[in-house]
Amino acid sequence: MVSFERPDFIELLQVISHKFKTKLTDNLVQLPAAVGKGYIWAEKLPCGISVMVSDTSYLDDFSVLRHECQEHSFMLQFTEVTLDEKAEGYKHNLRRLNDHIKSSVKLSHTLAAESFSHPATTRMRCVKFFFNKSHLSLLVGKNALDEMLTQYFPVVIKNETLEPIATDYRIMLDQLLMEKIIHPLRINHIQNRVLLLLERFIINLHNRKDIPAKKVKRSDEETVRLMKVEALLVKNFAVSPPTIDELSRISAMSPTKLKNDFKMLYGLPIYEYYQKNRMLRAKSLLLLGKYSIKEVGMMVGYSNLSHFANTFKKEFGHLPSELAARDGVLLYN
Predict the structure, then answer these.
(1) Which of 23, 25, 131, 295 could join 291 in a cystine, given CB atoms 3.0 to 4.6 angstroms apart?
(2) What's the CA gap between 38 and 28, in Å, rounded?
């Protein structure tokens, strides 16, 4: 376990680097082979937001404790947890690890201590950042800020509400979840994505408050199981998705309840959700400018290039060949 107090992820990164006896270079830590695999990086953005991005798998359970701090800030955390099937010993811990498989968004604050656990042999991809009232004020204005701080945020934090990572977060997260972001305006590029994630979270929160309450016969445990289903759906687009029967067994729900509850939570039927995220993943890969259209098609499970191109056009209104990435800037040919 490591611990920190101030809402500063660069400070935490220094603690992690010291803990694992590894070199910290340009605010980036590569996990030593004796510890696990993956990377963690952090930045202090021009607007003052502290952000950390990680894609890690540990050989042993690892946890971080954040002590309570009088410097009042909020933390927004996007987490995707899947099994690292290549990790040694994952089959031995399969039943225990299955409880942790989910993708979620969580809001917390620094006035109370908080711990974060990373079970061994799971792969965890995280984007997290600290922000304060001034950052919120710039996004929503003073009147909306008061409503956020007195009505919305306290309820979410008190109930430890986990929001699902829906499709509207995916591209922004994919543009941050990489070991090295190569961009001529790298820091501004990162800041833009972080602020867009915060903006989207606020919009989703506001929309939920505006929708008339519905009596949803679903327990918190069932919601977590649906998050697990979602994580399995988007885990690897290169292979066929699980069948409804397989997902039904995994979620311990009947096929009918699974389909109805999934659509209510994520806004789309299961396979429509899968296909939309599949295309969003393809678009993110194309925007990197590292892969050919054929390579991207293969990476999201298409052996037929024409089928991939037509499906892509149906989703976005243009062909993959009309999309190009140059230094992270979107261009249409």
Answers:
(1) 295
(2) 11
Model pTM score = 0.80
Residues 177 and 236 in one domain: no
- pLDDT tens readout for residues 192-201: 999 999 999 9
State which H helix or E strand residue 169 sits in: helix 167-176
Which segment of 130-139, 147-156, 298-307 scores lowest on mean pLDDT?
Answer: 147-156
Please give the sequence-ordered ranges of beta strands (E in DSSP) within the chain, or none if there are none: 2-4, 24-25, 28-30, 36-44, 50-58, 62-66, 74-83, 103-109, 114-118, 122-131, 162-164, 323-326, 329-332
CA angle 85/57/111 to nearest 5° reads: 135
Q: Mark whether 196 and 273 lie in a shared domain.
A: no
Could you tell me if 33 and 73 lie in one domain? yes
Q: Which two tokens stand for residue 295?
A: 């390579």
Q: Which amino acid is at 120?
A: A
Domain residues for the domain of 318 are 230-243+263-332
For residues 20 and 137, membership in a common domain is answered with yes
CA-CA distances (angstroms) from residue 283 to 39, 53, 54? 24, 21, 21
Q: Is 183 part of any domain?
A: yes
